[in-house]
Structures are given as C-alpha cells and as structure tokens.
Write a structure and sequence with these properties.
The complex is a heterodimer.
Chain A (H helix, E strand, L loop, with lengths): L2 H4 L1 H5 L6 E8 L8 E8 L4 E5 L6 H9 L6 E6 L2 E2 L5 H11 E4 L11 H5 L1 H5 L4 H14 L15 H13 L5 E5 L7 H16 L4 E5 L3 H4 L4 E6 L2 E5 L2
Parallel strand pairs in A: 3-8, 3-9, 6-7, 7-8
Antiparallel strand pairs in A: 1-2, 1-4, 4-5, 9-10
Helix pairs in contact in A: 8-9
Chain B lengths: L2 H14 L1 H40 L4 E5 L4 E2 L2 H6 L4 E11 L1 E3 L6 H4 L4 E5 L1 H7 L21 E4 L1 H15 L5 H12 L1 H12 L17 E6 L2 E10 L9 E5 H8 L4 E2 L1 E6 L7 H10 L7 E4 L1 H54 L4 H38 L19 H31 L2 H5 L10 H19 L9 H16 L1 H10 L6 H12 L1 H39 L4 E5 L8 H8 L4 E12 L8 E6 L12 E5 L8 E5 H7 L6 E5 L28 E10 L8 E5 H8 L8 E6 L10 H11 L2 H4 L2 E5 H15 L1 H28 L1 H9 L4 H43 L9 H27 L12
Helix pairs in contact in B: 1-12, 2-11, 2-12, 2-13, 2-26, 11-12, 11-13, 11-19, 11-26, 12-13, 15-16, 15-17, 16-28, 17-18, 17-19, 18-28, 19-25, 19-26, 19-28, 26-29, 28-29
Classes of the chains: A alpha/beta, B alpha+beta.
Chain lengths: ~240, ~950
C-alpha cells in the first residue's frame, strides 16, 4: 500500500495530517547519502510501523521528525508546523507539545520516582507540579502501576519501567508517538502485556503512532508499514 | 588477570580521558610541590643555621654564659683550673658596625655583623672553626696582632670588594666624611692616649694608617676603632657574618675590660652527666658568678628551631590541606573513570576476573595518577625551593629563619623529604580512589552489564550523625593541652571540623532543596535532583568547600590579626616621633636624656630602656622594658588583656606579655624571681664603660629581684616574651643610679593652624635641633613610619600563606571543574532524554548553569560558615598556643564577600566551559543504541 493511502479517508475528512514529510534527504559530508527523496504522511490516530536493517537511518529519520536533527533537503511538518525551518528552541517546544517518545531501554531518569518520571512532559510544558503529578498518576493508574508510582526506576522490573515510559509518552496527550522497539528489552510475556496496555491506551486517544520494530508480530494491526532500505522508503503490507 | 593485560587496560583507560586525568595530576602535583618546597626551604635554612653554629662551637661540650648578658672574666680562671675541665676558651662577642665603606650602603652590606674576640691558643683546642686561614695569611709577620681581624669567608669577600671601591674613591662624600670623622676624631686621640697610659702596648685598637688598603673602621658600644683585615677564617661559618680578633684587643677597644660573653668548655670526661651541675654549683658559691647558665652546643639551634617551629608547622598544615583538597578531585576522577569503564569492567567480570582483580585495576589507575602527580610535584617543589632559597634566603615571611648560604643540597635528606611528600601525593590518590573502588566491589558484574552505577551506601542522615560525632571529637581536641608548644589538639579539631562540615553537606543540601522553588521545570528538576542525590551533589563540591573554608578561615585570621596589630600599634605608639640607639652605640645617659627632653616644641618626652634577660637556656632571651608608667593606670599605656591588679606593697609590679604566661607560667597575681640583666660585679669605672648596665654593679647590687605580676598585655612584636617594669621601681629595686635609655618617644605640641609649621615640618625641626653627635647615634622615625613599616613586615610575613591559599583555591576550582565535567558526562543520557521530551539545548544549558550556580552558592555559603568556625579555632586556639598572643575576631566582611563572589564567578565560568564542551558532544547518541 502506498504510504499516502493509509490516511486517505482522514485526509478526505479535511483533517491536518499529524506528520507530513516531503522529499526528505539526509547526507553527511564525505559520506554516501543516508537516504533521499522520502515522502510520508501520517494522519491523526493512524498507526504505522517502520522496519529496516541496523544502520539504515531509522534513528536519523526519527531525529529529523522530532526536530532533533536537521535535514539536508525536504520538509517535515508535525501537526501542520514546519519543523525543518524553525529554530532549535521552537522545535523543542513543538516536540514537547506534539510528540511522545518511548525508548527500547526505557531511559527513565534514575533519581525520579515513577510518577515523577511520568510527570516530566507536562512539567516541561509549564504545568504546575501538582497538576503534572496528578495527570501522571492518572496515566500510571491506567497502565496498572498505581502501587508502584513512588518507586524509583531501580526498584522496578523491566516491564514496569517500560509502562512508566509509556505513561511518560502519553501523559501530555501528544499527537504523535515515536516508539522504538518498546518491547525489545522485555521477555515475550512482558512484551505482550506492555503492548496490550499500550494499544489500549492509544485506543482511548486520538494520537498517531510511528513504531520502529524488528518483530513482525508487532506489525500486525498497524495501519501502515514501511521499510527503510538502501536509502529508500518502501511501503509494505502490514 | 595477567599483569600485562592489567597494565594495558589501566593505561588505555587513563589515556582515553587524559585531559581530566591531567587535572587530577596537576592538583596532586601542586599540593606536593607546595608542601615539599616549604619543607626544603625551612629545613635548608635551619640546617645552614646549625652548620654555622657547629663551625663556631667547634669541639665544645658546653658553653658557660650569664642570664644577664656577660660574665665576669675572672671566672674564667676558676673554670679553666677546674679538675673536670680539659680545655676552656673565653669568647667576647659584640655587635659591630663597619663605617666609611664605599658602597654607600654600608649599613646594608655589613648589617648583622658580630665581632668575636678569642684566645687564639685556647680556641685552637675548643673552637678551631674560629681560627684564621693560616695558608692564606696576608701578613705573616703580624698574623694575630691586636689590630688584625679575620672575616668569615662571605664577609671577607664583600669587604675586599668594598675596600677596593673605597680606595678607588668610590665612596660617597658622606661615607668618606663619616669615615674620616670616626677614624680621626676624638676616639683615635683618646685611645692613643689611653694606650700610651697603659704602656704603649702595640696600640691595640688604634686605627691603621689611612693608606692601608685593608684598613677597617669599626664601631661597637659607642666606640670607634680601627683594624686591618688579615684574611678569612679557616672554616666556613655557613652564611653567618663574623669578624674574629684577639679577645684582649676587643676588650680594650670596647671598654669591657673584665667581661666575656661565654666560656666554651671541653670536659675531661664528657660522658659524665654531672659535670655541668657540679661546676655550676661550685661557681654559684662565688659572688662574681651570678645568673650562670650552662648551655649545650645544640641548645641554640634547638632554640631557633623551637622559635620558628609554630610558624613552620602552620605553613606545613596549610600545604597539607591544599594537598588533601586533591583527594576530592581524584575521587571524582576515579568515579568518572569507573562509570566510563563500567562496560569493560563488567565484561572482565563476566569473563572471570574477580572483584578483587577489578578493584586492583582501579587502584593501579589511582596509583598511576598519584605517582605522576608526585613526580611532577617533586620536580616543581625542588625548583620552587631553589628559587625561594635564592631569593629569600630561606625566610618564608616569619623573619625568624634566614641564612644567606642556604641552598638546595642534593643529599639523602632531600631524597627522603621528596619521597615523603611524594608518598603523601600517592596517598592522596589512593584515598581518593577508596570510595569508587569500594563501590565497584559492591556491584555485581550482571548489574554492571546492565549499566547500573555503583550506588553510595551511606545516607545523608547517617553522614550527618557521623559529622556530629566528629564535631564532638573536635571540640574535645580543643581542650587538649598543647604538645611541645604545638597546638596538636587544635589542629586535630580543625581537621575534624572540616571533615564534619563536609559530611554534613548532603543533609544540608536536602534541607535546602526542600525549600527550593517548584515553579518551572528547571527549578523542579534541580530540586528533585538535590533531594534524590544529595551525596552526589555535595560530593561534587567538597573540594571547593574545603578550600573556601580554609581560605575564609585564614583570611579571617589574618584580617583579625591585621586589625589587632593596627590597634596595638595605636596603643604602643602614642608619641609622634621615636628614636632608638643604633646597634654598636651606647645607651643614652642622664645628660643625653636631659638634652633630648629639652628640645623645643615638645609636649612630652618618654625614655625607656630595653634589656635582655635569659630565663631558660632553651628559649630566646626575654625583653625587659623599663619605662615610665603609672601602675594604677597601666591599661592606658599598655594593651592590657583581662584584669589589672593593684600594686603590691612590697614588691615592684611588672606587666608581662601573654607569652610570659604561656612559656614561663608568670600568671597574673604571682610573684616571680627576675634575674637582673647586665650585672658584672667588680668593675670600678662604671661611668666610663658602656653599656652601663653591663657593668657598674657593686656588692650591693642584687643578682635578681622578686617582682609581682600585676597584669598581662598583648605584645605582637615579641613572641619570646617581654616584661614591663616601671622606671622608678626598677631603679629602686635593682640598685641602679640611673636609667640608660635605649629608646625615646617625643610627643609634639599640637600645631596651631596658621601659626606653627606643619607636622612634617615640626618633625624636621625637632630632628634638626638634636645635637649632631647624639643624632648620629640614633635611628629616628616618626610613629607613622614605624606603623607603615610594621604593617609592611606584617603583610610580607603572610605572603607564603596567601600563596598557599591561592593554591588551595585553585585546586578547589580545579575540583569543581573536574567533578562538574565528570558528573555532566555521566548525565549525558539524562540530557539526551530531556531533549527528546522537549527540552531545548539552551534549556539544558540553563538547567546545568542553574544547578551549578545554586550548588556553588550553597558550597560557598557553607564553606564560609565552616571557615568562620575554623577561624575561631585558628584565632582562639592555634594562635595563642603557637605564638602566645591573642586577638579579637574581626571578620573583614567586605573582602570575604568579594572573594566569595569572585570564586562563584570563577566557578561559574569553569562550569560554563564544561557545559559548552558537553553541549558540543553528540548528546543524542546516548539513547541511539536502541535505534
């Protein structure tokens, strides 16, 4: 399926795409282009998977989408905002408002409790501590971790840590979640449990998901699927 | 683990982070260098002093002296004939000035010279170091006549140069005039006359012909005489400037016909312990032998060593603290190294290396740092010592130890000193590695593989309890009496309180964080980090807290001391102009005093006599100051500490310095025996023989008097002790007819505006009104000059202390930079995550700057409070116990605040540098491994 086809119906309804990438290219000086001429669009609520071999540029593509890196050519829009033509501080603000991240290795801040970690995005957006903690606590409860919300990351299991990381990605109601192998560090049972909770939470929210994964099972149920290979983005059937 | 592998791993890791390791090495090297340089300089100067004494004392087993200054020469016969004595050699030594030399700065070039009169044949047995160099005699026909003098090697060389310049007409007009005056004036006539009266004995003391290119014009005890430079002494006197001549000639030239300064003795049976006591007991039965002391050859060196020991120990302690500050830098470095090496170490663990082997590897790295720092420090320290000895002669500011010949000697002692300080440097590295090594020992390889960092075992509360215990132990140390006049307990309290202050920091940070604002993400993150990781935060600031507290304490102590000295000078310099009798001149007699008191434009004139009294052979003489003073209102003229007692009805009152209470137990209200200085019985012509206090006693003159201690006063000028006695009581109790003043103070009439001259002109008028013959024997200074000179000397004496402070602060700042760099590096992943969550690069910078600024401010504030506590120990305990004087604490608030702001700015700049470097790194890679 062509990438544009996934959100076709939503486009027809006149909604602004969460993510629109046109003619994106990235190359480093003195090296072969990493990728080029990438077009991609993701509508609100759409779920897409991105696969590809190690070193193909998946992380760079995510950095570019999040405004953490600058493209060589092309444009990126997140919720209608051009990311590529803005200053770094502005990009950071857009990232804080519209994007949520889930990492493979969780990356919780070790000196903050579960609820404090989850409260970081609203705090960065300017919410008061009380409100941020309240929101974080609610999401953590949704993910079934109420009893562990005051535990430090070092006191949590891998599955629990990832659930906190997911809570952190969801708490500020982002429009787009960039998730990288969220189950890569978990055993199959924990992975299934985490993904189930993740999908349930997503179902209750209108946010889009771009999931990087190597697990073919995780592709099932996605609206879209792309493979990044040899510098080109190829659409696959989910 | 095979050693080659261990070495390779060790050095590869160190090389990978060489810039940060260089900071740690530099910190250790600076600490080692300062301590080593100070020790070498002090030791070299003291050794030189000892060598000088040894060359002079020669083979003497003991030296007989008088507590009152000089011995009656007739005792010599009894000593020489004593069955216990193998050889006895009399010596008369006096201060001397050489006048009329061509340098135009003769006073400088020939300052601190003594002339020693010896009996050649007896000295050959006892003090061979004082004999002339027979191989290089200039005039073998008159090699030890009455007018020949031999100079110590260095002095001989200088004199020859100056004599040649004089002959070539290089002397200033004033020099030549002075020389002619002194050489051809009344003294020459009177001496020639006296010599002829005494039978024309080779005209001892007469001046050599003006044409003699080696003629020296000398002056001692107010008398001028001439001598010919015959050559140099056979043995080096190690930097001490001496002239040696025949004792009879010197006695005659100085007028001290029946006086000797000391009798050096060789025992027949030196191993017998009772020799000295028995001889003293027998001599004590004789009226002529009063206030005798038997001094061992080592006593003088020991006395100098004791006198300067407190100052040396103080500098040593400061250098040690500077070195120990390096512990924290090494610790942060080792922690960074541990976190960076964690994956490698974890793999090693999984592959079979034991925890002990991994810990040994880390210790090896610490040792490599320590050894490099120690080696560099040793080289720097020796170079610094060499420079200091060449430029200051070993005087590090105290003015107590100075030796022109002192230099760095490459011998076993230097090697051991360097090894000792190097070992301290290695010890610092070892100590710094202790925490990280232990933490690594607690971490399992599996946890390490997962990237878990070693967690601290202690909590902020438990460390605070430990701090409280150390605080208590320190307080207990304060009540421990000084050990060998060293405030060991107070030093221990300093160290314990410093450690307590550092250990209390985590709790302090936690408490402060609880009150920190929660508004805004950056504030919230800063607060949470402080609450969650107070140990890590406080640890990053231990170096700067230690160095700042030390600097604040020392600055406060010096500032308070400076204030106290300034106030003291106001108290002890009430007059406008002061004059002191020059070295080698006679004190002022009654006629001179009347002449000086009758000068125009004076409101008041006060005279005082300063005498030396030896109360203990292992301590320098105590100064006895005889002056006008109303016993009932002594506090108006003396900076009295504590209460004043009313005069005793039977005993004369004395007011003693604080050192007298500490060193001799002369407590207020006690009655003490005061030996009378300068009594040599039996001289018949007191009025002609200066100084009158050396002679002039008759059978009614007591050997000592009983005095009542009516008060204690502060004396910042003499840490060996001083006693003030009122003039009339002194004359009455000591049997003296008049006061022979050594000092005079003039208070001028207040200048009337438009009528009288300016104060400067008044002083000039006063000085011009003094009889030139009297004026030439006086050193005249205004009170303002004395005050400025005193403050200049004060500031100079703390130059090395300031340098040590600067080094400690520099090491502390290096520590801030190092720990900030290491902690920021270990937090790269945290910043990467925050950036993913929407924190901009600049916001990350602001967060780091906020954290650094706040923590630095807390560290400086805490360092200042800690410094106040340490200053209290320095001012109220270390100083009184070391130097025997007290002072009031007067914090130089402005200077300290300015200094703290400067350190804060410096810390922030270094922090900004670290943050800038950090932000240039590809931070996002820290979460990239997932993608």
């Amino acid at each position: 399926m062509h990438p544009r086809q996934g959100g076709h119906q939503i486009l027809e309804r006149g909604l602004i795409p969460v993510l629109r990438i046109c003619g994106l290219a990235k190359h480093y000086p003195g090296a072969a282009p990493l990728f080029g001429n990438i077009d991609l669009q993701l509508q609100p609520g759409a779920k897409a998977a991105l696969i590809g071999p190690s070193g193909c540029g998946k992380s760079t593509l995510l950095h570019l989408i999040a405004g953490l890196d600058e493209a060589s050519h092309g444009s990126i829009e997140v919720c209608g905002h051009r990311m590529d033509s803005r200053a770094e501080a502005e990009r950071a603000r857009l990232r804080a408002r519209h994007i949520g991240f889930v990492f493979q290795a969780f990356h919780l801040l070790p000196h903050l409790t579960a609820v404090q970690n989850a409260a970081l995005p609203p705090l960065l957006l300017g919410s008061s501590e009380a409100l941020a903690l309240e929101e974080a606590s609610a999401v953590i409860a949704e993910l079934g971790l109420t009893s562990r919300e005051h535990a430090l990351p070092s006191e949590l299991s891998g599955g629990e840590q990832q659930r906190v990381a997911i809570a952190r990605a969801l708490v500020h109601r982002p429009d787009l979640i960039l998730a990288d192998e969220p189950t890569g560090n978990l055993d199959p049972d924990s992975a299934d449990q985490v993904m189930h909770l993740f999908n349930e939470a997503l179902r209750r929210r209108p946010c889009a998901l771009l999931l990087v994964t190597h697990d073919r099972d995780r592709i099932r149920g996605m609206d879209l699927c792309w493979k990044l290979q040899h510098g080109r983005l190829v659409s696959l059937a989910p | 683990m095979p050693w080659p592998v261990a070495w390779r791993l060790c050095f590869e890791s160190l090389r990978a982070y060489r810039a940060r390791q260089a900071l740690a090495v530099l910190a250790i090297a600076l600490g080692v260098a300062m301590g080593l340089a100070i020790e070498i300089v002090n030791r070299s100067a003291l050794e030189e002093f000892r060598r000088a004494l040894a060359s002079i004392n020669g083979n003497a087993d003991a030296s007989l002296r008088s507590a009152s200054g000089h011995l009656d020469a007739r005792i010599f016969a009894k000593v020489a004939n004593d069955p216990r004595v193998r050889e006895a050699a009399p010596i008369l030594h006096l201060p001397v000035t050489i006048t009329g030399l061509a340098t135009g700065r003769a006073g400088d070039a020939t300052a601190s010279i003594e002339i020693w009169g010896i009996d050649l044949f007896r000295a050959a047995q006892v003090n061979p170091g004082l004999l002339p160099d027979f191989a290089a005699l200039e005039r073998p026909d008159r090699w030890f006549g009455g007018d020949v003098v031999y100079a110590s090697a260095g002095l001989a060389l200088r004199l020859q140069t100056m004599l040649a310049a004089t002959q070539a007409g290089g002397g200033s007009q004033e020099d030549r005039a002075s020389r002619e005056d002194r050489a051809s004036g009344e003294d020459r006539a009177s001496r020639e006359d006296r010599a002829s009266q005494e039978g024309g004995v080779a005209l001892r003391g007469a001046l050599p012909p003006e044409s003699d290119p080696r003629a020296l014009a000398l002056r001692t005890l107010g008398r001028s005489f001439g001598m010919t430079l015959g050559g140099s002494l056979a043995q080096a006197t190690a930097g001490r400037d001496l002239l040696v001549t025949d004792i009879a000639s010197l006695q005659e030239a100085s007028g001290l016909h029946h006086a000797v300064s000391r009798i050096d003795i060789r025992w027949k049976e030196p191993e017998r312990s009772g020799n000295g006591a028995e001889l003293l007991a027998e001599l004590a039965q004789d009226r002529q032998a009063t206030s005798l002391l038997l001094v061992r050859p080592d006593d003088e060196a020991e006395r100098m060593s004791n006198l300067s020991r407190a100052y040396r120990v103080n500098l040593g302690i400061l250098a040690l603290v500077a070195l120990l500050t390096g512990v924290f830098i090494v610790q942060s470095n080792m922690q960074l190294l541990a976190s960076r090496q964690l994956p490698s170490l974890a793999i090693l663990g999984v592959l079979g290396a034991s925890r002990h082997q991994i810990q040994a590897l880390m210790r090896l790295q610490a040792l490599a740092l320590g050894l490099t720092g120690a080696l560099l420090g040793a080289v720097l320290g020796i170079a610094l010592a060499w420079i200091l000895l060449a430029r200051t002669g070993g005087d590090l500011g105290s003015g107590l130890i100075r030796s022109s010949g002192a230099s760095v000697r490459a011998d076993a002692s230097l090697l051991f000193t360097a090894l000792f300080h190097g070992a301290l440097g290695v010890g610092v590295a070892w100590l710094g590695a202790l925490g990280p090594v232990r933490a690594m020992g607690r971490l399992s390889p599996i946890a390490a593989l997962k990237g878990a960092l070693p967690a601290p075992r202690a909590s902020a509360a438990s460390l605070a309890w430990l701090a409280a215990a150390l605080l208590g132990m320190g307080a207990a140390g304060l009540v421990v009496a000084p050990l060998g006049h060293l405030p060991i307990g107070a030093y221990a309290a300093l160290a314990l309180w410093l450690c307590a202050g550092l250990l209390a920091m985590p709790l302090l940070i936690q408490r402060l964080a609880q009150g920190w604002s929660r508004r805004g993400a950056l504030n919230w993150l800063t607060r949470q980090r402080a609450l969650a990781a107070p140990l890590s935060l406080s640890f990053s600031m231990t170096g700067i807290v230690a160095s700042v507290s030390l600097c604040v304490a020392v600055t406060l102590m010096i500032g308070s001391f400076r204030d106290a000295v300034s106030a003291w000078l106001d108290h002890v310099l009430p007059a406008d102009v002061y004059a002191r009798v020059l070295k080698g001149e006679t004190p002022m007699d009654q006629a001179t005093q009347q002449s000086l008191a009758a000068l125009p434009g004076l409101r008041r004139t006060e005279f005082q006599q300063v005498l030396e009294v030896t109360l203990a052979t292992d301590r320098p003489p105590v100064l006895l100051i005889v002056r006008e003073l109303d016993p009932a209102t002594a506090q108006s003229r003396l900076p009295v500490t504590g209460a004043l007692l009313p005069p005793h009805p039977e005993m004369p009152s004395v007011w003693v310095s604080e050192a007298m209470v500490d060193l001799y137990g002369w407590a207020i209200g006690s009655a003490q025996q005061l030996p009378l200085p300068g009594v040599v019985a039996g001289d018949s012509t007191p009025q002609q023989l200066p100084p009158p206090d050396v002679v002039g006693a008759d059978s009614t003159t007591p050997a000592s008097i009983r005095v009542f201690v009516a008060g204690v006063w502060r004396d910042y000028a003499r840490q060996s002790g001083s006693i003030v006695i009122e003039r009339r009581q002194w004359l009455a109790s000591s049997g003296r007819a008049q006061l022979f003043a050594t000092d005079v103070g003039w208070t001028l009439e207040p200048a009337r505006q438009g009528v009288d001259a300016s104060p400067e002109q008044q002083v000039s008028k006063l000085v011009n009104a003094i009889d030139p013959a009297i004026a030439s024997t006086l050193e005249i200074r205004t009170a303002q000059d004395i005050r400025q000179l005193s403050m200049r000397i004060f500031d100079r004496s703390f130059t090395v202390t300031y340098a040590l402070q600067a080094v400690a602060l520099l090491i502390g700042l290096l520590g801030v930079t190092g720990t900030l760099a290491s902690q920021s590096t270990t937090r790269l992943r945290e910043f990467a995550v925050l950036r993913h969550l929407g924190l901009s690069r600049m916001a990350c910078v602001r967060l780091l700057l906020l954290e650094t600024g706040v923590v630095l401010a807390v560290a400086l504030g805490w360092g200042m409070l800690l410094g106040l506590a340490l200053a209290w120990i320095l001012i109220d305990w270390v100083n009184p116990q070391s130097f025997h004087w007290s002072m009031d604490m007067k914090p130089p608030g402005g200077a300290i605040a300015l200094g703290l702001v400067a350190v804060w700015i410096a810390g922030m700049l270094s922090g900004a540098l670290v943050i800038r470097t950090l932000m240039q790194q590809p931070m996002l890679r820290n979460v990239k491994e997932d993608w």
